[in-house]
Amino acid sequence: MDLSPETILSLFCLTIASLAIIPGLRSGVDDDEALVARCASGDREAFNDLVLKYQKKVFNVAYRFVGDQEEANDLAQEIFAAAYQNLKKFRGDSKFSTWLFQIATNRGKNRFKYLKRRGFFVNKSSQNQDEEGEGYQKVVPDNSSNPENILSSRQIQKVVQDAIDELEPDHKEIVILRDIEGFSYEEIARMLDLPEGTTKSRLHRARMVIKEKLKKVLS
Amino acid sequence: MMDCENVSSLYGKIIDGEADAADHRALEDHLKDCRACCEDFEWYKLTMKALCNLQPVSPPSDFLEQLNSRIHPNRKTFEIKSFFRNLFDSIPHAPAPVGVVSLALVVVVAFMVYNNVPVDTGMAVAPIVGAKTIASTVDSGAQINTVSQSQGQVSPPPAAAPRLPMLASNPPATSVSTGPAWRFPTIADEIGGDNLTVESPRVDLAIESLRNVLPNLEGKIVDEKIRNNVGEVMVGVVIPSNKYADLASALINHGSVEAGSLQIEGKALVPSRTDSNQLRLYIRFTRSSQ
To answer: What ipTM, to 2 d.p.?
Structure first.
């Protein structure tokens, strides 16, 4: 078979293009999978890559559970340490991120219960009120301002976090995963091992509780 | 028309975008006539916005370092171990040659350094022989040379240089040049060049001779240092000043040196340190080359 120079050039270009594209597609699909496999075989750099990828989100989840920077740091480290120690048990049935946030939720809930038993949130609340003097009395939204600005103000942020702190653990985890971290109902149901209907109904109740608290403080 | 409780259950579906047209219509119909639910729905939407607007909290900049020190408390040790463990796979394209060549290089360098060290292993394996045998193996070219320390001047060699077969000066420059380029510092380097050096194929026997003759000279041993790595023994002795010449003679008479070649000129033998009428000097015993 005679091949013209144009045909050879076209084949060459196609080969180069496929070499460039295929690894990209592959890495997009199972990026975590490859890292997890390397990590399970003892590659610590791979685990570092996973940490760098998820640390912000995990830390944020941890913070929403405990509402304190220092506690959140400790909790987030505990979550990653637990993931590292149990990585060999990860079978790949679900996505790594789902598995990781399942650990995060369990650990976060346990830490929240532990801190609540020790009166951590009561002490924190009274301490904050002492520091801010008039507490929430000043937290009245100014209707003349932009609503987005009002909601992103430090005081409103604190009101919302306090409302989350007061939720029952079962409600709290769903609000954090759905409304703050944006996981789908399907992912949340898998993480918490709950039916989707239960997940939705719990979320609705949790939102109504927070709404009532905000209404009480902001009205 | 739906009651207020049922309508509130639609809030989530509406916000999440999961409500169908019927749900939308039912909510709108209810809100038209129920001011309380209308207000409640506004609060619900505000709550959702507030939750979505929560500012993300960032971990500390050294989060990864903290985590690694928590997971691997002995990371430093591990890194050293892992260096050797990964020696063969640190360069994936040429794993074995790099590791083998590195190890071979280390062995060769260590061997070269070891060979440059003038270790006297002969002391330990030297055959036990009699005095006559030793005398016959002594280098007749060995000589004794002393330097006046008290005056700080080098005394010129006497006209008839005292040539003691067993007592030799510290190695002259010419003999150093024939040896290895680098050597460990010797005791003679430490105590200075104005003391005696005794070369003998049997250092242990020579020292024993010294021990035997010292009582007869009213002298005693005050110091002894052994440096096995360079095959030297340094002995510090104190004798009466006027017995210095007798010391070498006595050593020779004891059988450690060849008596026939003994010529000692007392004036040439200046002690390294005097204390009234006592002489303190160091004698360096070193194994002579056969």
So the answer is: 0.75
Q: Is residue B57 part of a domain?
A: no
Q: Is B20 exposed, middle or buried (0-12, 13-18, 19+ CB in 10 A)?
A: exposed
Domain that residue B82 falls in? 63-116
- Please indicate if any CB of chain A lies within 8 Å of the CB of B11: yes
- DSSP per-residue codes, B141-162: T------BTTTTBPPPPPSS--
Assigned CATH for A31-118: 1.10.1740.10
Question: Which residue of chain A has the CA closest to B45?
Answer: A211
Q: How far is CA B56 from CA A56, A145, B28, in A?
A: 8, 23, 34
Tens digits of per-residue pLDDT, A44-75? 899 999 999 999 999 999 999 999 999 999 99
- Asked whether the beta carbons of A152 and B52 are under 8 A apart, the reply is no
Q: Cβ A157–B66 below 8 Å, yes or no?
A: no
Residue A156 in tokens: 């409103």
CA–CA distance, B180 with B119 (Å, rounded to integer): 12
Contacts of B51 in chain A (CB under 8 A): 160, 175, 179-180, 207, 210
Q: What are the backbone angles phi and psi of residue A193, rounded to the nearest 5°?
A: 55, 50
Tokens 């007392």 correspond to what residue? Answer: B266
Q: Does domain A123-219 have CATH number 1.10.10.10?
A: yes
Among A152, A179, A196, A216, the residue to mutate for chain B (most B Cβ within 10 A) = A179
CA B117/CA B119 separation, integer angstroms: 6
Q: Where do the CATH 1.10.10.10 domains begin and end in chain A?
A: 123-219
User: For A9-22, how does the pLDDT look when each residue is reduced to its tens digit (9 = 90+)?
Assistant: 777 767 776 665 55
Contact B56 A56 (CB under 8 A): yes
Same domain, B193 and B104: no
CB-neighbour burial class of residue A171 (10 A; exposed 0-12, middle 13-18, buried 19+): buried
Question: Which residue in B13, B53, B70, B82 has the most chain A C-beta atoms within 10 A of its own C-beta, making it the best mutation to test that interface?
Answer: B53
